[in-house]
Amino acid sequence: MTYKTCVTITEKNPKKLNLILKNALKNSDYAELRLDFLKPFHVPDVLESTKKQLGKCVCTLRPTTEGGKFQGTDKERISILKMIAEYHPFLLDVEFNTLRKNKILHNYIKKTKTEVLVSWHDFKKTPSIPALKNMLKQMKKFSKNIKIVTNAKAQDDSSKILSLYNNSTKTNLIAFAMGDEGRMSRILCLYLGAPFTYVSLGKPVAPGQFSLDEVKRIIRV
User: 56, 106, 147, 160: which one is catalytic?
Assistant: First the structure.
């Protein structure tokens, strides 16, 4: 079986982003465009210049409150998310808390027929298994595409997050733990059913992230 990768791109320069994206998709199945690293007024131009590649892109506009770089108002971010949806990327990553608070946004994205990747991160710890199961249950209400990422502080934190795959029927679940203690969960999640794992092109973008070359040495992609 061949496993899939998604290269995270955090380029701030629109022209460089285009070059990096084209190069990334030559070696990876998908790419995550961290559009929150761009200045907001650059996002429309980037969407237009990359529209031929967007069918293989996970578009993300993470706010600072969720560990991202977008510093505008919530109203501005919602407006940009709606615009991204109109370009029909492979997946549009929207935080669980954002969807929970903005039913109008959720309905708008559904009308565009763009697939949502509902995401939730705990940057401080890995909650208990019952808490994780409950989060998964709540997230299923918004999409079959789910991303749950926690911070591993101990060795058994990886087994906690990976146990979610026992409750992931009828979902495309991406669940792993960040940090050195959770690093291998980024690989093991593929064997448990994750549609892809996030990688970098060089230096890790998130704690414990493997590079594309490292993953290719470990597994068949």
Answer: 147
Q: 192: which residues sit within 8 A by CB, 6+ positions away? A: 162, 165
CATH (residue range 5-218): 3.20.20.70
Please provide residue 169's backbone torsions phi and psi, each rounded to the nearest 5 degrees: -60, 140
Distance CA 118, CA 131 (A): 17
- The answer to whether residue 160 is catalytic is no
Q: Which of 56, 106, 121, 160 is catalytic?
A: 121
Strands (E), the chain: 5-9, 30-34, 57-60, 91-95, 116-122, 145-151, 172-178, 197-199
Residue 101 designated active-site: no
For the chain, the residue count is: 221
* 116-130 confidence digits (pLDDT tens): 999 999 999 999 999
User: What H or E segment, with its residue span, contains residue 139?
Assistant: helix 129-139
What value does the mean pLDDT take over residues 164-171? 91
Q: How far is CA 82 from the centre of its chain?
A: 17
**Residue 118: helix, strand or coil by DSSP?**
strand
- Whether 182 and 166 have beta carbons less than 8 Å apart is answered as no
Per DSSP, 211 falls in state: B
